[in-house]
Fold:
Amino acid sequence: MFDSKLITLIVSVITIAPIIAILIEKWKFKNNTNINRDKNYYYKCIFITYENYSCLQHVYNTTSCGEKCSYAYLTEILNLLKSAKSSISMCMYHLSLQQIFQEIINAKLRGVSIRIITDREMEFNSGSKISRLRQEGVEIKTQSIAELTGYLHHKFCLIDKNYDSQIMWFGSLNLTLQGICSNWDNIVITNNNDIILRFSNAFENLWTDM
Ligand SMILES: [Zn+2]
Structure:
């Protein structure tokens, strides 16, 4: 017959074991040296909501109604492109904003290396600035027909990668008026080395494969 103390011990172990396992996992996560815990990097999250629909006029008039204005967000993106000294590596499903087109051309004129990867079909969407960018000599790649199994749906942009000033944005936002004013969309702006490296590798792999 089992000793009652032995049964109590077995029940206690069965009860406590999962709790100990969870605590060990939490400790391992906290001490995972593969996670960059450097707090010095910068990041900013932008969320576009239905409230930004009223900002359509602010984008047209180039006036801001506050820090959550679509025009303020657009200005922030334009300033990132303006800050480029070495390179702009952009992966964008749809690009139709005239202001973005102009800022890319400005960057090219001051000697910045520009590479854009976009969707093969969206290039011919009305309003797309991709054909005009090609005409201006900007290097642009799209999927080959053989690779055309889905949309090139990425939306990210690396600026001055591999330099101290490197910065990027990524998220759901297409560079369109609808995206900046009418959709529920987001972007994250960051200079985090690890994130930039991952996106940079992804960009280079796409660029090589296309
Ligand atoms: Zn506004």
